């Protein structure tokens, strides 16, 4: 599946990775690389199929919200008409 660039909220792995990083950061008390490696491995082990499903569900909800917003923008913008005026008219210079 192709994901749009600059939209990490539409990629479930970004949500999982954020949870893992947050877990490591909360539990990191020694700031030693060897301890961080252990914390990382422990946190990755806690990434369950249920967590993945919740992240995927969250991404689907975010995508639906984006589609709804896109449709609302289309409805709001469609009736707008921009009139640039007549290019040959010298009256447009007087308006400034």
TrEMBL record:
One of its GO terms (molecular function) is nucleic acid binding. InterPro entries: RNaseH_sf. This is Tc1-like transposase DDE domain-containing protein.
